[in-house]
Amino acid sequence: MFKWPNGARAAVSLSFDDARPSQVDLGVPILNAHGVRATFYVSPPNIAQRRPQWQDALAAGHEIGNHTLSHPCTGNFPWSRANALEDYTLERMEQELIAANQFIDQTLGVTPRTFAYPCGQKFVGRGEAAQSYVPLVAKHFLAGRGFKDESVHDPLAGDLAQVMGIDGDDQSFDRLTVWIDQAVQAGGWLVFAMHDVGDFPRQAIHPDVLEAVCRYCTRPANGIWMDTVATVAAYIVRGQT
Ligand SMILES: [Zn+2]
């Protein structure tokens, strides 16, 4: 089994996508109260709505990650039809990744070290010309997080360019605890992916649930190491060399 630091039995990372304002309004204060550092895969156009709060989040030790500049997903989503992965090339995707890093560096003064695939989708093009952009993510980042994956990440068998991302939205604390306990049993790395924080009809973690997850994962008896995606990924790289 992989050896986590300080005798921990598993690692848990909390990640939040798209730089939705509720993340800094409601999420960061809860995380800070529990001393939990999380990873925020920001969509650059959304940063402007809360720029000082994003700077405060960085100063508190949270990670800012890359989520592309324009959030391309499959054109099956009507909102992504004009910016569809089916119409992308690897060259265009690489420009997206670099441009998002530059934007984040210019606005927040930090260069992202990890990435989250928008919609969890990892391809460009269509049919026989479709290609994976996982190699680009591996080239530019320490780790790339998926979405709506169905397994805890295994630090030895898994690829850091395709870290398993588990959907943490719209679920009860009990449901999320099943995942956390599974990670502890497997000695693995659980990465939750969320969107809004609050009482939203969809794509959100309720503040009470976030609070309960933080409390559960930081209880020393549970033996969980909680840290950002970049910090855990860097530890795994060190352990493998
Ligand atoms: Zn997203």
Q: Which keywords apply here?
A:
single chain; 241 residues; alpha/beta; TIM Barrel; 6-stranded parallel β-sheet; two-stranded parallel sheet; 12 strands; binds zinc ion
Q: Name the hetero compounds present.
A: zinc ion
Helix content: 25-40%
CATH topology: TIM Barrel
N- and C-termini, Cα separation: 16 Å
Count helical runs.
8
Helix-strand makeup class: alpha/beta
Largest sheet: 6 strands, parallel
CATH architecture: Alpha-Beta Barrel
Sheet-strand content, in percent, reads 15-25%
Domains, number: 1
What string gives the helices and strands in order?
EHEHHEHEEEHEEHEEEHEH
Q: Spans of 5+ residues with little confidence (pLDDT < 50)?
A: none
The radius of gyration over CA amounts to 17 Å
Q: Determine the mean pLDDT.
A: 97
- Which of globular, elongated, flat, extended, rod-shaped describes the shape? globular
